[in-house]
Amino acid sequence: MAQAFPDDPYLSGFWAPFGAEIDAPDLVVEGELPDSLNGTFFRNGPDPAYAPKPGNKYHVFDGDGMIYALHLENGKASLKNRWVKTDKLKLEQEAGRRLFGVFGNPAFNDPTVNPMQYNTANTHIWPHAGKLYALMEGCPPIEIDPENLETVGSETYGGAVAGPFTAHPKNDYETGEMFAFGYAAKGPASTDIRYNVVDKDRKISKTEWLSQPYASMMHDFFLTENYVIFPCLPVTLDLMRAMQGGPMAAWDDTKFAAFGVMPRYGSGEDVKWIEVDPTFMFHCANAYEADGKLHVEVAGTKRAPLMPSADGSPPPVMDARQLLTRWTMGTDGETSDFKETVLGDLDMQFPRIDDRLTGRPYDYVYTNVASPGESGRTDGFDNYARYDIRDGSIDVYVPEEKTVFGEGVFVPRSPDAPGNDGHVLVFGWNKERNVSDFYVFSADDIGGGPVAKVNIPFRVPGGFHCSWMDAA
Ligand SMILES: [Fe+2]
């Protein structure tokens, strides 16, 4: 018999484990779904099947991956959700309890599961070359069948990707390639990074190795037309700290931040590191080249949210607000070139763009934001917005009832529609009625409110990242 979950803000309310796999075949739609939307919106997020082991504290990054698929076809909407059937989850379901320590820390694992690879597959759901993958940065991708959400199995690209693989690869929509990396790639807390290019036929066309200045948690990275940029930011990884019961990953602002700039088809020996004052982001909106410089727009902050300090103490919430920020740097490793410009003043969480413009100049960022002066971590990201990065202007939707938005996805009106001509899709949890809706905004009028809303008769819990796959 499964045990009750302990008290924890990320095990209650919006984030309470859902614990069920459901098929909702034909949902009520308010307004009219655009004809151009035929396909599926996928979202991944943590849904712990079992309570943490005694003495372990839950972390929201550590739940079992659960995929939600909102399918739109000929004006009708349906929803299903399935756990990613990882080896970890299957073993724990057989045992009827949690076998792994938090984050798979071997010091707390049931001895029967060592030295198994620890994969929750809970972070992103990412398409490449017709396939769909559940991603968690410590392990190879897990292929998911987009039709029925069945777990197909690990994708190691013929053994080339046996270990860590980012949850934030970048697809180049002109070449069909996927650019990816894995950090701590030669063991926990190692500084080694493996960089991969996967071609349009899903073959590894490039593998390079490089080393970051210190062992940091590298959650995202940046791609431009000619470069990749590896951000080494002050959330440090420390195996000794973890073995002594402290956090494996912790904020340490005695460390500098560094950006490793490398030609995207270059070698690990070409990387030039630019060291700057401590700064942080979990998520990048986009990166591009202009005026002979590299420009990167991120949800930037001076204190990493959600990550404890080395002594285990939580971050001060208001210090960990994330604001739309531009980092500008050169390609030659010159530190004096680096510039940080804050473009927005609302706490934001998940910036997305018209993915077809990845690595190229673009104009708009779509993101969930908190009301002015508030923190999304305490109050929820209760508005949805489009930022114009040219002047920092913002078009914000403020719902009538208290709602918490997750990550949105931009879907073009057609594959060759101009940039930003299309719709933005996002789940919103209605806090007052404890049910969720699926919002469809016209991308050029977010503030005008959704053109259609799919009513979901239950709560879709808090989650992380999402993608769209067209039916075609
Ligand atoms: Fe992420």
Q: Structural class per helix/strand content?
A: mainly beta
What does the average pLDDT come to?
A: 96
Number of domains: 1
Specify Rg, calculated over alpha carbons: 21 Å
Instruction: Give the strand content.
Output: 35-45%
Written description of the protein model:
This protein is mainly β. The protein has a single domain (9-470), classed as Neuraminidase. The protein is 4% helix and 38% strand. The chain is built from 3 helices and 31 strands. It has helices at residues 87-95, 239-243, 376-379; strands at residues 23-24, 29-31, 39-46, 65-73, 76-83, 124-128, 131-135, 142-144, 151-154, 170-171, 178-182, 192-198, 204-211, 222-223, 227-232, 235-237, 249-251, 257-263, 272-276, 280-290, 293-301, 323-329, 339-342, 364-369, 383-388, 394-397, 403-412, 422-430, 435-442, 452-456, 466-470. The strands form 8 sheets. The protein has a 5-stranded antiparallel sheet with strand order 1-5-4-3-31, with no helix packed on it. It has a 5-stranded antiparallel sheet with strand order 2-30-29-28-27, with no helix packed on it. Strand 12 and strand 13 (204-211) form a beta hairpin. 48% of the residues are buried. Bound molecules: fe (ii) ion.
Record the SSE blueprint:
Elements: E1 23-24, E2 29-31, E3 39-46, E4 65-73, E5 76-83, H1 87-95, E6 124-128, E7 131-135, E8 142-144, E9 151-154, E10 170-171, E11 178-182, E12 192-198, E13 204-211, E14 222-223, E15 227-232, E16 235-237, H2 239-243, E17 249-251, E18 257-263, E19 272-276, E20 280-290, E21 293-301, E22 323-329, E23 339-342, E24 364-369, H3 376-379, E25 383-388, E26 394-397, E27 403-412, E28 422-430, E29 435-442, E30 452-456, E31 466-470
Antiparallel strand pairs: 1-5, 2-30, 3-4, 3-31, 4-5, 6-7, 7-8, 8-9, 10-11, 11-12, 12-13, 14-15, 15-18, 16-17, 18-19, 20-21, 21-22, 22-23, 24-25, 25-26, 27-28, 28-29, 29-30
Bound molecules: fe (ii) ion.
